[in-house]
Sequence to fold (425 residues):
Amino acid sequence: MITPEINPLQRLADGTVKQLNPFTGTEVWTVPGRANRPLPNYLPASQPLKDGANRYTCDFCTQNYRKTTPEKMRITNGKLEKELLLDEAQANPADVRLIGNLFEIVSLDYWKTNHNYQISKRAREHQERYLMDPTGHAHITDLVSTVWQAHHKCDPQDVPDFTSDQLLEASEAFFGGCHDVVVAKKHYRDDATTTADLCASGDLTPDEHFAYMKLSTMAQYQQYMENPHARYVSVFQNWLRPAGASFDHLHKQIVAIDQLPSKASREFARLHRTPDLYELYGYKFAEENNLILMENDHAFAYASYGHRYPSLELYSKYERLHPWELDDEQLRGLSDVLHACHAATGAAIPVNEEWYTRPIGIPATDARIPWHIVLKWRTTTLAGFEGATGIYLNTIDPWSLRDKVGPRLHQLADEGRLAEGLELS
Ligand SMILES: [Zn+2]
Fold:
């Protein structure tokens, strides 16, 4: 039953749109006249790109494998491989790879100290094998030195020599930590001529994007399986610096935490009162309000409402399945819709891609939360009005967003840049 006082989308006589997010309670207003402003371009300054060094500019680039932690998993030409050694990894750069974050949000030490967490058998075996290998040993020594230097704010010559035991302990986080990064192969597009031609999600082919999604769902599952104290595993992607990215190189992050976020708890309370909340305010509501952008057999997307920023939202049609439980066809369907949303957004807009998934310990019968993803366009800065009132000013209302994205989707489809099987509105 719909709570009578919820009216998520109201257009007033003067054109102001008032939005109330039925899942989170977020209150948003769009005032008329601001939606037509041109979208900002946040790409880095354009410098000519040479074939040499400046193609491999950041630590995530394929030439810099030594600057990142050992590979936990990778997909190359559709083939999954696990726990590689450095020489193996470098010999054949991965299409997409899973590595531990060198500077974790929630550190391994947090898990060990507060939960007596031990790294998994898989991680320990990989670590021992890696350290037995001379190239691997040198790689780990360099990484431990890098982290030591950063923590002690000292020069390279002041880093001490580490004993084998110290190396073993200090490198545990690289192999069995609970904050991972899924890194795409390319920093720049294949046809790039300048440093502004970054390779964003929408610049991948649908096949490449599927491999990227597949590895991300596997990484989320592995975090849940290997850490019994993980109540929630968050998956997100920050694109460009205004969206919080430290590198302009496409990557997702997978972070385990030991509690449900309070945002999720509030949503569960709402679901308890209204178990069919997602049916009422997902597809049906978006369709009634003419906001659907596209769908295929496995997923759909719409111009969303009730978010602090202009947002595209997409849903898996498999209400009960966790991301890693979708078979390849089902996941491919969702990946194609997400890829199209990114492609229509373009590379110049900073975007947070946020995954919303049912925590593993909560059965689908208790909380009917389908896997859904929100793409937030970080085109505005929150200011005093938001802080003081809790009401967010979003510059683009959902219908204006639909009118910006819809034609772009058709154009991309005509150019053959989207996957087959998408039904565009
Ligand atoms: Zn890079």
In short: The chain has a mean pLDDT of 92. Residues 276 and 368 are 7 Å apart (CA to CA). The pocket of zinc ion is lined by residues 57-58, 60-61, 187, 249 (CB under 6 Å).
